[in-house]
Amino acid sequence: MTMVATAHDAMAAENAVPAPIRDFLRVPTDPQWVTDAAAHLSTILLDHANCELKAASTALSLMHRYPLRSTLVQRMSRLAREELRHFEQVSRVIKEREVGGRTLSASGYAAGLMVDVEKREPGKLVDTLIVGAIIEARSCERFALIAPCLDDSLAKFYRGLLASEARHFEHYLRLAREAAEGTTLAFDTRLDVWLEREAALINLPTTQIRFHSGPLSV
Questions:
Q1: pLDDT confidence bin for 4, thresholds 50/70/90
Q2: Nearest-angstrom CA–CA distance, 49 and 27
Q3: Looking at residue 16, what is its pLDDT?
Q4: Any residues with CB less than 8 A from the CB of 111 and at least 6 apart, and which?
C-alpha cells in the first residue's frame, strides 16, 4: 500500500498543523519523512497501532506509580481509554485494508528521549510528563502532515485524531508544570533541554521508516 506525496500536499500539510504545536516544537518534520511515510503506508499504520498501545501503557503506568495525585490519575485514566480506542480504530483500518501483520522494531525515538529522565522524584515525574507532552505534540504534527497525502477515508481518520493528540499534549504539559510547582526544579529550563533533545532526534535518517522516525537514508 503506497501513496505519493506532492508539493501541494506538503503545503496543505504545513498549514494543517495547529499553531500551538508548530510553536511548541523546535523543528518541523523533514518533508522527506512525509514522502517516505506515504510510500510505506502499511508500515506506518502498523507502527501507529504500536504507538497507541504504548501511549495507553504509559498512561496506566503513571496512574499506578502516582495513585495519590488525583488530577493526574483522572486525566491519565481518560487518556488511556482514548488511546486504546485509537488503537482499536487503527487496527480496524489495518484489517480493512488487508495489511499483513508483522512485528516491527521500535524507532528508538521514545527511548532516546527517556534515556536521561531524572531517577529521583520530583524530577522523574516532571521529566516523564514533559517527554509525554513532546511525543503527543509530534504525533499531532505528523497526523496533520500525512493526512493530505492519503485517500479521503484515511485522511479523514487522521484529521479526526488531531484534536485528541493536541488535547493530550496540553494535558501532559499542564501536569508537568503542576508537578514542578513548589519544588526547586526550573521547569522552563528542563523543558528547553527536552525540546532540544527531541529536535536532535526526530529527523535523524533511518533505514526503517516509523511513525516517529526520521526520513529514510539514501
A1: low
A2: 25
A3: 82
A4: none
